[in-house]
Structures are given as C-alpha cells and as structure tokens.
Amino acid sequence: MRSPTNLGRGSIGFNMTPMIDVVFLLIIFFLVSSHLARQETQVAVDLPDAVSSDRPEEEDVRRLFVNVLSENRILVGSQPIESARLETLLNYESQRSLGAGSARPLEVRIRTDRTVPYRAVEPILLACARSGIWNVKFAVVGSPK
Amino acid sequence: MRAPSRHDNERQPLEVKMTPMIDVIFLLLIFFVTTSSFQPPEEVLPTNMSLPGSTSETVEIDPLEEDLDEIVVKVLWRQGGPRWEVNQREYQNLDQVGGVLTAVVGFQDDLPVILDVEGVVPMESVIDVYDLCRQIGLQRIQFAAAAGT
After folding, report:
1. pLDDT digit string (tens) for B45-68?
2. Which residues 6+ apart lie within 8 Å of B118 measured at CB?
3. Residue A20 maps to a domain
C-alpha cells in the first residue's frame, strides 16, 4: 500500500479506516462478551415451558437464584445448600434487604427442572413467604403464544 | 490512498477499496455467530406472594370479605399423569380445565385461584396450570401450603 507523502498536504498521512474497524471490533467484543458472560454464569437447568411468561426486566433488584435441580439438590447461585438451611438463608437475605435503608429490594428467582416434584419447591415458597420476600419469580422457557 | 489525479476539473471516478469492506463484513459475521445461542431465552413467571408491606405470617389463604367464591384447583397425580379438580369436580384434560376457568371468569372476574398441588406432581404440570390461569386472565393465583410443614 502506498502511503501518500505529506508534501503539499496538511493532513495526517495514515489510513483511518483500519483504526475505525479495530475500535468497532473492540466495542462489539466487549458488548457480546458481557452479554454472554451473564448468561453463562447460570447453572444449566431444564426449565418448564410457559406461554404467558414475561421477559425478565433489568430492574435494580438484588437477585437470588435458587436452582432446584432435583428433589435433593438445591443450589443457591452455584452453591449447594441443604433444605434445612434454606429458610435461614432466605431470612438472612431478606433482613439484609429490609434493614439497610438504601439496599436494593430482593428478588428470588426459582429455577426448577421440569421433573422436580412440587414437594421440593413448596418449602422454598413457604420460606419466602415467612421471610417476607414477596418478589418471587419462576424461571421458564417461553413457548410460542 | 492514491486516486488518479486529473489536471482538469473533471470529477474523479469513485475508486472503492475492498479491504475495509471485507473487514466489516467479517466482523458482522463473527458478531452474529457469537451472539447466536441455541438455548431459548429464559423468561419469568411472577408469583403473587403476599403484597409488600403486609405481614408474612399468613400462609393460610383466608377468603376475603368481598369475595364470596374462590376457585380451588387441585392438581393430583394419578396413574403416572396429572389430573385436575376444580372446586371438587374432576377433569382428565387440561383443556377442559381451561374451559371451565374461562367460563367462570366470564361470570365473575378477579376471583382468587388457589392451587393445591400434591407433593409428587412435577413442576412441569404445576407451571402448566399456573400458565393456563395467567393466560385466561386470572391474576390472583396463590399456592396453598399446609401450615406447620
């Protein structure tokens, strides 16, 4: 590639085009990797289908993901937890949100495998109700309407 | 960048370099390949727990003064499949349940629905019933829980 000389020209003598391409590429890369990173941190669960589901909103809440993989395996975030301790944990998290004045409200998202029996999830709902957590959502896969 | 120069004032023909064009196309290709995920996007079904601000001890569902009726949908598990009871009437088919609920909503909307689910029913069936109620337009759907568990 022949670079034009600066004789008789007042402008910088290099091509801006590849520079713009590289900057654009970097922007796209960081956008995509942050989007993918957010999805990949969740545990893989075979969620049930629903037609009337809503898009998850980007609200300013503190989200607690309770993953119920099978009747005996409950993970909070990615940490396994015994069902006996779950209520204590929910209580603690709820107190944290209610106590500090400027703390963001708590949302509990229950992600269950579709084959998990209801008796594994009922204590979670009970514990949420007892701890005063009202913002409880089920994660589902959207089906066509 | 070298463009052919003419000494007279004729307009110069547009000479387009293909290299940046190829870069941009390649970039778009990479972008769409990486953002495509073969997992369906996850969505949410909100539940109506007790309203914010109220005390959280009530897990028994009390019929409110202004409602004379409530719909109790029991979800059972018989012979390896789900069965449904709406106000003590049995149904074998989820579509029938949907029909009954739609008819009831026609008479009186804003009825609370109480889902009484047996322990062995898988979440898939529970979500199916919950979803059906939401589709029909019932907003006050609550899960019955035995106090003391």
Report:
1. 888 775 544 444 444 444 443 344
2. A118, B74, B75, B76, B77
3. no
Nearest C-alpha in B relative to A50: B131
What does the pLDDT look like over A94-104, one tens digit per residue? 888 877 666 67
Report yes or no: B23 at the A interface, CB cutoff 8 Å. Answer: yes
B71 to chain A nearest CA, in Å? 20
Report for A10-19, A38-47, A126-135, B40-49: range of highest mean pLDDT: A126-135
- pTM equals 0.69
Assembly ipTM: 0.70
Residue A119 belongs to a domain:
yes
d(CA B124, CA A6): 71
In a domain, A21, yes or no: no
CATH of the domain at A127: 3.30.420.270
Domains detected in chain B: 71-143 (3.30.420.270)
Q: Please count the CA atoms within 13 angstroms of the CA of A35 that sit on its side-chain side.
A: 12
Cβ contact (<8 Å) for B118 and A118? yes
Which residue in B has a C-alpha nearest to residue A69's C-alpha? B123
Question: What DSSP character marks residue B116?
Answer: E
CB nearest B44 (choices: A15, A48, A54):
A54
